[in-house]
Amino acid sequence: MNRVLDKLFNKLPSLIRRNVIPLVRACYQAKAKRAMRQNKWCNICGWRGNQFDVSYSEVMRRDEIGVCPNCKSEPRQRALFKYLQQEFLSDYLYKIKDGNFLCLEIGPDRSNPVEKALVGIVYMSVDFDASHAMIQMDLTDLTFKDSTFDLVVCSHVLEHIGDDARGISQIRRVLKQDGVALIQVPIGYYDDPLGKYTVEFGERRVCEHYRSYGWDFADRLSGIGFKVDIVRFTDDRLGIKEEAIFKCRPSA
Prior knowledge:
This protein has helices at about 1-10, 15-35, 75-95, 115, 165-175, 215-225; strands at about 40, 50, 55, 60-65, 100-105, 120-125, 135, 150-155, 175-185, 200, 210, 225-235, 240-250. Helices cover about 30% and strands about 30% of the residues.
């Protein structure tokens, strides 16, 4: 870039060269520095910067970097948004265009990745806390009819439920036979970085969790009537170290 500028401005009067070249170079260098600093990105709200915010994790008992300064999304929500936009949307766009694609989100997040990623869906959200969703409802006692929804999203909810098997069975019940459930749970917490096996606490612990899930969570889902694929994400730019989505389809 500097050689091109030198050749171009050598043809101009010396007074212009002395003033213009340093200015152009300074602007170019400042732009390059800004680009280097803005190496983090939130795909949900579009924020760019040099680092996500730090928050204290009560479960991990340490500070963790990952919260978007703008929309407050966490890595798991950005992973969900990425999957919905890049993979799920292409597979189900033909249904969404019809305007009858019904989606249920259980325990919606404030950054709202589902509605933002899947524009045009018929969206409904439920939560035990009425202030967090459109309808107050307990996951273990959903009042919807069988086979109602094309998509059910449940992110970091089941660890807060004593009878998670009943919650999973309710998701299975309200999901259409050709529908998909996207379920996320925290894996490998509580001093168990590999997360081989799920550990039941018998009571609520830190962050009101009843259990620490392991990768055998897929077996729990299969045992309640799901065919399960595990979609894993790692993306440094999005602040995603390792996140997983359990993609569940009703088994025959």
